[in-house]
Amino acid sequence: MTMTLQFLGAAEEVTGSCHLLTVNDKQVLLDCGLIQGSKADAMRNYQAFRFEPSQIDAVILSHAHIDHSGRIPQLVKSGFKGPIYTHKASAELCAIMLKDAAMLQQRDTERLNKKRLKKGLEPLQALFDEQDVEQTIQQFKPLNYGESIQVLPQLTLQLSDAGHILGSAIVELWISEIGTRKKIVFSGDLGREGMPILDDPEIIKTADLVLMESTYGNRLHRSWQQTIDELEQIFAAAISGSQGNILLPAFSVGRAQELLYLFHLYAKQWDLSRWRICLDSPMAIEATKVYINNYPVMDDDFKRFTQQHPGEHPLLSNVEFIQSTEQSMELNEINQGLIIIAGSGMCNGGRIRCHLEHNLWRPECDVIICGYQAISTPGRMLVDGADYLTIRGKPVKVAAKLHTVGGLSAHADQAELIHWYQQFDNAPPLILVHGEQQVQQDLLAAIQASFAQPAVMLAAKQGDKLDLSALPELVWLT
């Protein structure tokens, strides 16, 4: 029996999650995400897949974030016709996010082709369009947590709650053959314990191999109370000055809804009545509706409040939804008193770019960075102390007060990742994915130090292929 696993994305880097599982003559993808970051990184999405898309039998999607789902329409466009298994909430979110991605693809490709034509280069085709997305949506097979389904004759799938965003899943896979049974656990992106809205990541006890994300594998987040105190101080200082606006670049799915919930919970404590809170992202608005409709999979506090206060939903109580471009542009005529939540979370697109253009150069304004910033993104440049940010081809001075609030991260930190892995019986072999190279090495060292007996572990490299039939030994074929 042939059983292999090849790492084709998010290997020693964050974004572009993609892993190819082969069982005899059948092939299954774990995620198929868009590569994000610099312009050079984005251009890698135009490269051909390292497999034949028409030969893929199924896709198993851990969650809806674009760095995990964003190339599935491209896969469909290239000939993939099989089912896409994911949690039902993830399927609903993907219907929103992939349509938005298609629109961005068309727009960005048009801009890129203008530059290419001036250089005498051949124009590029958009990776996919709305028609490809519509076909992709038809291929989704929504699942519930805990539901077991046979993906292939030899492959059984079950999803467990990863606590990262709505619908995020830990993927449990059982590969069976006469006399052979192996269990693979893929963490997807793991959330944090005690965070609002979502349940904590589920603990899994058994595995023959664990694939674990490592985004924040070399740092510890502030505690939840420290984070709340930090935000209160930021708002208190901004209110005392009362001369500018507050910008929050936020991922449209997950972070935006978390911020709305916090503004509801702490409206009085943070004295937010003097501020106009605007969610300026059509995609985040649509995603918020999906969150509202899926409250039964939220944590107990969120469910209890929603049930006890039917006319005061915690994601709707004190926010304005900004839908049209005209409404968004009107916000830039207002110099103070606005809290603007807008995408993209890494400041590399979306309406936040326009708001940064109008506010970043103003010392009386505040910018709160509250999510992961990939290398070479404008958000990372701000975090790293850039003096200027180029927006629409022009340099904008960074004079606003910049705050990096790591405690709002939806990713587990080093201690939480180690704790999650420690709950497995007998320390199964561990392979790290979805993390920067140095971060992964720091995490590996920390995990080894926490075990009396050394565990078998390493970070996957791009293109590495593992022989699963040899487990618990890690035997590489390439």
UniProtKB/TrEMBL annotation:
| One Pfam family it belongs to | RMMBL
**SUPFAM superfamilies per the record?**
Metallo-hydrolase/oxidoreductase
Query: Where in the numbering of this chain does the Beta-Casp domain appear?
Result: 256-382
Q: Does the UniProt entry include the keyword Nucleotide-binding?
A: no
- The keyword Hydrolase appears for this protein: yes
Give the InterPro entries listed for this entry: Beta_Casp (IPR022712), MBL (IPR050698), Metallo-B-lactamas (IPR001279), RibonucZ/Hydroxyglut_hydro (IPR036866), RMMBL (IPR011108)
Please give the name of this protein.
Metallo-beta-lactamase family protein
Organism of provenance? Agarivorans albus MKT 106
